[in-house]
Amino acid sequence: MIYVISDLHGYPFERFLELLEKAAFSAEDTLYVLGDVIDRGDDGVRYLLWMQQQKNAVLIMGNHEDMMLKCDFLFEPTAKELMGKLDYEQRVNLAVWMSNGAEPTVRGLFELGYEQRKAIYDYITEAPLYLEITAGGKDFVLVHSGLRDFCSSKELDRYSDIDLLWHRPPLSERYYDDKTVVFGHTPTWAYGDEYEGSIIITDTWIDIDAGAGKGLPPVLLRLDDMTQFML
Ligand SMILES: [Mn+2]
User: Fold this and answer.
1) What is the CATH number of the domain that holds 206?
2) Cβ-Cβ contacts under 8 Å for 126 (sequence gap 6 or more)
């Protein structure tokens, strides 16, 4: 079975493991995490350490992981000393990331040794911007934010990082006729109070960001049969 979840944003890691258990997630299943496991909550780095060890969990790039990679100086052996000597561009990159809730992630990184930090950097660098998969006989595109400037005839690799990482689709957005786009990034409460805590399923896309970034329980979706799991 194929499961998707998104925008965990440091949500308590033990609760996430409980959610997987509730869904009977096993070694034969695959979990796709559609970006933004880090920032806001405290446990972001724990997710990255865990995901690296899982053969059946796949991270797709989120805008928060992308902001983290732009602060590559944090992954140097002497990162702590470098913090006092950053150049202008490095300071801007760190300020942008910090203004998006990076403080617990930076703290978590500094609790690790160089080898673990380096492994995290290498792991995130390998994360794809999107994946196309089939589940339950249906085709899906998995991507962090949806598709900015969508055109059905445009190949997915023609979209820019910004198109795939920072888009905010309106509810009226429509994508493909023959495959469903699954994304997070825009918490569903942003579409109106009536969506708070739920995922949104339209006929061409699914927003699975139920708002863990502000502490709401994440929703784990099994694509084979569209079963939703939450605690
Ligand atoms: Mn995001």
Assistant:
1) 3.60.21.10
2) none
Q: Average pLDDT by consecutive 10-residue portion of the chain (231 residues)?
A: 98 98 98 98 98 98 98 95 95 98 98 97 98 98 98 98 98 98 98 98 98 97 98 95
Task: Write down the pTM of the prediction.
Answer: 0.97
Is 96 inside any structural domain? no
- List the beta bridge partners of residue 132: 141
Range of the domain at 13: 2-69+128-229
| Residue 57 token pair | 């969990």
Residues 206, 199: Cα–Cα separation, whole Å: 7
Q: Do the bridges between strand 2-5 and strand 30-33 make them parallel or antiparallel, or are there none, so unpaired? A: parallel
Distance of CA 111 from the midpoint of ligand 1 (Å):
24
> For ligand 1, a single-atom ion, which residues have Cβ within 5 Å?
36, 62-63, 185
87 in a structural domain: no
